[in-house]
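YM 10:42: Peroxisomal adenine nucleotide carrier 1 sequence, as discussed on the call
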Amino acid sequence: MADGLDWESLTEATSGAVGALVSTTVLYPLDTCKTKYQAEVQSHGQRKYRNLSDVLWEAISTRQFLSLYQGLGTKNFQSFISQFVYFYSYSYFRRWYLQKNGAKSIGTKANLVVAAAAGACTVVVTQPLDTVSSRMQTSAFGKSKGLRETLSEGYWSEAYEGLGVSLLLTANPAIQYTVFDRLKQRILMKQSSKVADTKSSPAALSAFSAFVLGAISKSVATVVTYPAIRCKVMIQSADTEDESNKDTQSKTPKTMVGALSSIWGKEGFPGLFKGLQAQILKTVFSSALLLMIKEKISKYTWISMLALRRAGGVLTWIDELVKTGRATKDKNEKWRLDTGKDRT
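YM 10:58: structure's back
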């Protein structure tokens, strides 16, 4: 039973999922403000939000501060599942590639392919939750609906709106984790000489180093893919219910081409990067915090997995003993019936 599981991949997946859960909860109000700011597309004279702080001020002035947490449960669930699937897939594909090629390390190009494949698996599994989460965040403060109600509003095909853009954005974590791994390997190579003669656990990044490397890698990935990120938010956002803006706001675009056309027609080229600073601020801190937590708890997660593996081995051993005992008992019973005597 224990040998049938990829324990290393399971450890990576669990550590990444826990890190995602913590980082999502801590930074959720910032994420809500960022998402609502990105989703708005209006001409310059008709903007509701001129900057990120306007979203925060609206929540405070309308006494809806707690609405900054609307959709938190769904987002946490989506983040946990997403990171678990991603880290498990990434670790599994990486190990498969190394074993197939007999290599000790994976090159940059191969790492990009592996990360993109893991990202594609993640998107297909979590897209409905991602869409629902975005709609809950972009709803008017105090008017967000629950997960079940939001899903039941339309057809299941609508839950996969933005799937094409999401698949395109698998390049984002691919770039991020490739940059992170490259920088991480360089740092650990300098530290390896210090533990080369010991039998201690493998060298790990310090919390500060993991935070800095996570911030750098995510910044690079965010800048490169930001226009697609904003298009995805627009496609998945909730339709406005503000009557005063009914004539000035068009219906939410449902394709990347439609989103790009809407942005270009109303905001021009700068609109493609509207909210970039907020996106970098949120994603950099989120990813850096996620990777920092993942690095620090990986050791303890691995110890827990080893304990589970050993427990599974013990259970298998007990199960074998029970089966052997039953077989012996059945054999003795058959012998007694055949001979009419008890076997001593």
